[in-house]
Design a protein that fits this description.
alpha/beta; Rossmann fold
């Protein structure tokens, strides 16, 4: 290869990532990295603090190469509770040491990373800033966190805010998954010359399942699906159950599948029993992943989201790839993607409005063209398309 033809070498620093304790966090980060790996040399480091126990190593590295991504998951022992100032200092020190260990593990001999890609602020941004100041490596940021949104108000603390503002100001480009999140960050005075929106990547298995189910005939019996992490304060599944109950009192030509697991799963199941929702119209599947999830969503006639707040759920992208319309609350950046051509929006918490929309859908008063949904989604959310968008960002960072 000529020097000019060599692929870029990208180091990803991820705040969230699938790990031995939970396979779900940061799947969208993993897919971004894999999309970029189609066009560049990609490495990734994720660190995870583990509660202090005698059996827990101080540092432990799990290394794997998958889909073109060299990934190091570094597990480090959190300090035991003690004097707060000392414990906090030790925790921060071990976090950075764990990241440096991970970087050494994923780096090829004599490899120089061209760009660092930070996923989720703030501490990883400080690490990227160190590499910029002392090694001349530019960095870009992708923020996924909802903490900046008005409803959350989790972005607090004078020192944290000042440090985050400095990190963002020094970044070449900051990307988010919605204009709504960009607006929220700017409202917190997180300014940089170049903000961009990069959509979440949809796993290739959804495209494969979409092709396999392209000719499935329609049925008069409508299948509705909800996919989430089962945190009720966030996803408002209890409100959704009340709507399902009301629908069941008026008709019986539908079935609702709730997919996922989480802290409120038992509470939600108990509430469904309290409401006396007929078992024949409601199914809890638990956690589904990969092809099992894609096939379950592909069988649905619509995806339903009733969240109190959101950023830009990747499940919407996945639904559109399968040609499935989306009925959702108008929260976060969802209105940037869902409209009357591919779904319907209702006000947050408005159970009557959601009932009306679902009832109209079951009455076939509203309908959607599956091919239209898929065509637009395939041109936007595929790994190849998003990978090229990421490459444009990395090349801009080097200018």
């Amino acid at each position: 290869m000529k020097p000019s033809d060599r692929p870029l070498h990208i180091l990803n620093l991820a705040r969230w990532y699938p790990n031995r304790y939970d396979p779900m966090p940061g799947l969208f980060i993993q897919r971004h990295a894999e999309a970029a790996a189609r066009f560049a040399e990609v490495a990734l480091v994720y660190t995870h603090g583990v509660e202090a126990e005698a059996s827990v190593p101080l540092y432990e590295i799990d290394y794997e190469e998958k889909a073109g991504v060299r990934a190091a998951r570094v597990y480090y022992r959190l300090p035991k509770a003690g004097i707060p100032l000392i414990s906090s200092g030790l925790k921060i020190a071990r976090f950075f040491i764990a990241n440096f260990k991970g970087i050494r593990r994923v780096r090829y001999p004599d490899e120089k990373f061209n760009v660092i890609h930070v996923h989720v602020l703030t501490r990883l941004g400080v690490l990227a800033l160190f590499y910029k100041w002392f090694h001349g490596v530019p960095y870009v940021i992708t923020e996924h966190w909802t903490r900046y949104l008005d409803l959350k108000e989790d972005f607090t603390g004078f020192f944290r805010k000042q440090l985050t503002r400095m990190v963002v100001r020094q970044a070449t480009i900051v990307s988010t998954v919605s204009n709504d999140l960009t607006r929220a960050m700017k409202n917190h005075k997180l300014f940089t010359p170049d903000y961009r929106v990069i959509y979440n990547v949809v796993d290739t298995v959804f495209f494969e399942v979409a092709e396999e189910t392209a000719s499935v005939p329609e049925s008069k019996w409508k299948e509705l699906v909800h996919v989430s992490c089962f945190t009720d304060a966030h996803k408002n599944i209890s409100g959704l159950l009340r709507v399902i109950k009301k629908l069941s009192e008026n008709r019986s030509d539908f079935h609702f599948t709730l997919v996922g697991e989480g802290e409120d799963l038992r509470k939600i199941k108990n509430y469904a029993r309290t409401l006396a929702i007929p078992k024949k119209i409601l199914t809890f599947t638990g956690l589904l992943e990969g092809k099992a999830l894609a096939e379950t969503m592909a069988r649905a006639d619509a995806l339903v989201i009733f969240s109190n707040y959101e950023n830009m759920p990747v499940v919407i992208n996945e639904s559109f790839v399968l040609g499935v319309p989306v009925f959702s609350t108008d929260v976060g950046g969802i209105a940037e993607m869902v409209n009357d051509t591919n779904g319907r929006l209702v006000p947050k918490g408005d159970e009557a409005a959601l009932f009306d929309v679902l009832n109209d859908f079951l009455e076939q008063k509203i309908s959607f063209k599956k091919e239209h949904l898929q065509q637009q989604a395939w041109q936007t959310f595929s790994p190849g398309v998003v990978g090229k968008v990421l490459m444009d960002i990395y090349e801009k960072a080097l200018v």
